[in-house]
């Protein structure tokens, strides 16, 4: 089967799980046509992402001419899809949520969809699949209306959970052949926004890791209390709270050290908080790292810490567990489906700075042999549940149906 993947910005440092999924599908004999609206080669540090960029067709880089010609060439079908685009635009007007926008924004999505439909048909794709229920899913939805090709999408969260109606999630679900959620929690949120008669279309397909890249557990480093947090520096990831919790924990556990891997709009406020709280010798900021760099930081840490306020089911949790690292994370979304308190790590209520500080102190006091046992239990659990080849095979079966 030839599948056209419809993506917004791709490849991207935070979307390596999509690359792994595509590679696993191709390894199983499927052809994948990569159609992204835009790319961002300036931030690609990972060799795999740079190679993926050369395989990806970026629609907006072609300029307005191909978009206009695609609309003219399929004028009748584009006109038939226009009411759906305008309805979605009215639903999203004024919401201020990425992937929504008003009618004008949705006319742009319609033009992108016309070009996607034209390319997919010309390349012989039999199915359209989008990642995220935001603008990529809207383009896939409109391309389905224009081309007649069936489509599906994978919902991650938390953005889709925050704005299901401005994102026209019920309409997208109703017209999709199936929708994949990356956790049971995600599937439950989809169930809230579609008719019960459509529940059978809702699948759980986990994001996957490549077990071969985690062939052996990483031994714990010397010392105690070294933590790593990996991800975009943003409000929903909770890094500002993490800095505050570290300041509370350090008097009881002076050996604690935190490495922040990633970058984003919250970097300046985080740096200011580190300086204000006197933590410059306790916190290291690395910026974005490639996969090898991330693995190196996991090897230097005793645990991953993830203080998020909102999530889907983060890849960094899976990768840390595969590397045999315990996880300190919050009780949000799909995380409790993977992290088991007391067995593979600690779970803390989101926003609980005192609870997070207490968990950090417990980490620092936990003997290395017990941390090793927790890490190995987590490794066994994640390799059983998140093997990318098995999850891609689930997705392929859904495409075939």
Provide structural commentary:
The chain has 401 residues and is an alpha/beta fold. The chain has two domains: 2-208 and 387-400, Glycogen Phosphorylase B (Rossmann fold, 3-Layer(aba) Sandwich), CATH 3.40.50; 211-385, Glycogen Phosphorylase B (Rossmann fold). The chain contains 16 helices and 13 strands. It has helices spanning 16-27, 47-55, 64-73, 75-92, 103-122, 135-147, 159-162, 169-175, 184-192, 239-249, 267-276, 291-300, 315-322, 353-365, 368-385, 388-400; strands at 2-9, 31-38, 56-58, 127-131, 151-155, 178-181, 202-204, 226-230, 257-261, 283-287, 303-306, 327-330, 345-348. A seven-stranded parallel β-sheet has the order 3-2-1-4-5-6-7, with helices on both faces. Helix 1 crosses helix 16 (388-400), helix 4 runs antiparallel to helix 6 and helix 10 (239-249) packs parallel to helix 11 (267-276). The mean pLDDT is 95.
Provide the descriptors you would attach to this structure in a database record.
Rossmann fold, seven-stranded parallel beta sheet, 401 residues, 2 domains, alpha/beta, six-stranded parallel beta sheet, 46% helix
How would you sum up the major sheet? 7 strands, parallel
Supply the number of helical segments.
Answer: 16
Question: How many beta-strand segments?
Answer: 13
Could you tell me the mean pLDDT?
95
Under CATH, the topology of the largest domain is which? Rossmann fold
**Backbone structural class:** alpha/beta
Instruction: Count structural domains.
Output: 2
Helix content: 40-55%
What is the name of the CATH architecture of the largest domain? 3-Layer(aba) Sandwich
Question: Can you list the strand order of the major beta sheet?
Answer: 3-2-1-4-5-6-7
Tell me what portion of residues adopts beta-strand conformation.
15-25%
Helix/strand order, N-terminal first? EHEHEHHHEHEHHEHEEHEHEHEHEEHHH
Distance between the termini: 12 Å
* Overall geometric form: elongated
* Uncertain spans: none
- What's the level 1 CATH class of the largest domain? Alpha Beta
The CATH superfamily of the largest domain turns out to be: Glycogen Phosphorylase B
Rounded Rg: 22 Å
Organism: Falsigemmobacter intermedius
Pfam families: Glyco_trans_1_4 (PF13692), Glyco_transf_4 (PF13439)
InterPro entries: Glyco_trans_4-like_N, Glycosyltransferase_grp1
Keywords: Transferase
